[in-house]
Amino acid sequence: MSLLEVRNLRASYGRIPVLHQIDLTVNAGEIVGVVGHNGMGKTTLLRSLMGHLKTSAGTVSLRDRDVKGLSAHKRARLGVTLVPQGRDIFGNLTVHENLMLGAFGTQDQSARIDEMISIFPRLADLLDRKGGALSGGEQQILALARALCNRPSLLLLDEPTEGVQPSIVLEMATALKSISQTENLAVILVEQNIAFIQSLAERVYTISNGVIEQELSVSGPNGAALITETLGF
Amino acid sequence: MDYTIVVAIELLRAVAGLVLISTGLAIIFGMMRVINIAHGEFMMLGGYTVVLSAKAGVNIWIAMLVLAPLTVGLFGVLVERLIIRHLYGRIIDTLLATWGLSLFLIGFVAVVFGNKLEGVATPFSGIAIGEYSVAAYTIFLIGAALAFVASIYLALKYSKAGLIARATMQNPEMVEALGVNSKLVFMTTFGVGAAFSGLAGALLAPISGVIPGMGVNFIGPAFITVVTGGSSIIAGTLSASGLLGSISQSTAFLAGPVYGDAMLFFAALVLLRLLPQGITGRLFTRSL
After folding, report:
1. Looking at this predicted complex, what is its ipTM?
2. Domains of chain A in sequence order
3. Choosing among A78, A104, A110, which should be mutated to test the B contact, i.e. which has the most B CBs within 10 A?
4. Model pTM score
5. In chain B, what is the straight-line distance between the N-terminal and C-terminal CA atoms, in Å?
6. Which of A29, B87, B92, B214 is the least crowded, having the fewest Cβ atoms under 10 Å away?
7. What distance in Å separates the CA atoms of residue A20 and residue A10, rounded to the nearest whole number?
8. Chain B residue with minimal CA distance to A53?
9. Across the interface, do A101 and B286 touch by the CB < 8 Å criterion?
10. A107 and chain B: CB distance < 8 Å anywhere?
């Protein structure tokens, strides 16, 4: 049984249609990439799956349950979460408070936060610092840790490597791979960094003008070249 | 010495008065960016709740401290649900809608209860300070203002609900992605702001009396205090109330109450010219 199944999804900003036909499937514990040029609808796709943007047609099923009409917080309680492009850290709150919000729905809030700090140790020294005072890379780590605090089953991850130093990119890749395996976490990863995608995902969907065009298997040594060639980067 | 104590108490009374009338607005406008022109009428409803409850034989303290905030808080929830929810992000529209609500409430209360001043007996008598006398209720109001500020600080800083409210006001979409019902948080926050307005109206009813149009006397100083204070609810309300209350009351002592009121607005104008983002836009920027 697939974790997420999206069929013929359409969405628009007001009267401007952005997503025309989205069909994709994600299995539990699987990391799937979505690639495409700028303005093709990748971020809109993630916003639609999170419930931030109302969809006009199609179906979105999570563990065979139709979630299309559910608001974002209800989807979050069913195990979907989002790390948006730009991170959206709560800048006026401390790192610890940001993590507490992430662990909002968990029974063992403190234990889960400690677990995240053990996975991302650089957060340990930053707990009392305001989120807005962190560097871009630190904010990205915090955004990821905050999203993972709630033990999601599906993580929607939008351009996590944008403007982030290579050591932090590596730290994120290692953590994602590990948590995906140990907690059966599925990830939809929207990314322009092909090497990063290829290091994590076995399958990649290509999107163009709001339509999922192809599904590529990128697990082999030529995966990155296949993506580049398909998209014409 | 006795005179100095009396003057100090009067200064504190002026500061406390501004804290009381502006706290509800600071929550609704300062946190939620909703220009609630009906703030004064929320206070008026609190006052009427006390008057009617007292006439019905309810204990004055229960009427003031429980019934008034509860009634106006629930009314605030209703207003948020029916009017404000549809206008978030449209600051001018919230102004117009709450202005309409304000006029409706004044008219409705005047029709139902009559356009006449209603009074409530002051719960305490006077306290002698040497050859002078100070109303004990004044001391109580100063304590109430401190309790207002302390309760909001503790709730925002140390409670889970306070943390969620602060995060929701910063980024409602992001908190939704973390499982928080942001609409419920907005509704509750508006209700809490309304409850503080109702409580302030109830506490001030014994000294100001209650009349349908009484809100007009409060809305100006309340907005001036909140805007002068800036974006931090507690530090802003405290610093602006402290500064404007002291200046206004000192002027009132020296030249009379009319000059005191004029000086309050003049001081606010000067402050906003020097600090366009309010006091906490430049000072105490990391405070709540």
Report:
1. 0.91
2. 4-88+150-231 (3.40.50.300)
3. A104
4. 0.89
5. 36
6. B92
7. 5
8. B173
9. no
10. no
